[in-house]
Amino acid sequence: MDNPNNPYGPYLLYFLSQLMKGGAGLQPAVQTTGQNPPSPAPAKAAELHNAEETGAAEDVGRTYFGQDETGCSWRREERVDLLEKFCREGYFMAKKHGHFLIGQSREGSFIAIPGRFLLEEQPAGGVTGFTLWQPLAGGEGLYESLETMDEEAAKTVYGYWVARLDPKTLTISEV
Predict the structure, then answer these.
(1) Which end of the chain is more exposed for a tag (fewer CB within 10 A), N or C?
(2) Could you tell me which residues come within 8 angstroms of residue 85 by beta carbon, excluding any fewer than 6 positions away?
(3) Across 34-151, where does the E strand assignment appear?
(4) Residue 94 Cα distances to 1, 14, 50, 120, angstroms
(5) Which of 81, 170, 73 shows the shortest CA–CA distance to 128?
(6) Neighbour count for residue 133 (Cβ, 10 Å)
(7) pTM of the model
(8) 3-class secondary-structure state, position 72
(9) pLDDT digit string (tens) for 97-144?
């Protein structure tokens, strides 16, 4: 029986719940068998380049934030098309950078969309809950505080817009 509060279907909820648990039972997006992986298509190579420019190139156990206000263990997810189903406001930036993050902590589940501390890169202008912005580790040294960040720093420091994610309903809210 479908949950009337969940228009996304049981498969998507199961998939995201597994992502938030660390991917137990899921096949990784890219499997390695000890052989050199095939080279990515040109479009995928461009997405990987964009992700590397933001300092978000994939590596296991990476610490994304110098000071993480959520206390999450983060997992990078490259299947950005999932966002079209439950987080359309984050889809464009995630597609641009080729990924988004799913986080889990004692306080709950979170989603992070890559972007700079610029209004045009804040998903839905913060209306849907993306009001917390955290710079990539090391980025916090390039400005004194978010309140005093100048436009030049805002254009060069990359980070993530973070919102709380209800794993049962996929509702997004403010941290």
Answers:
(1) N
(2) 8, 12, 170
(3) 73-77, 100-105, 108-116, 132-135
(4) 32, 21, 11, 14
(5) 170
(6) 23
(7) 0.69
(8) coil
(9) 999 999 999 999 999 999 999 999 999 999 999 999 999 999 988 888
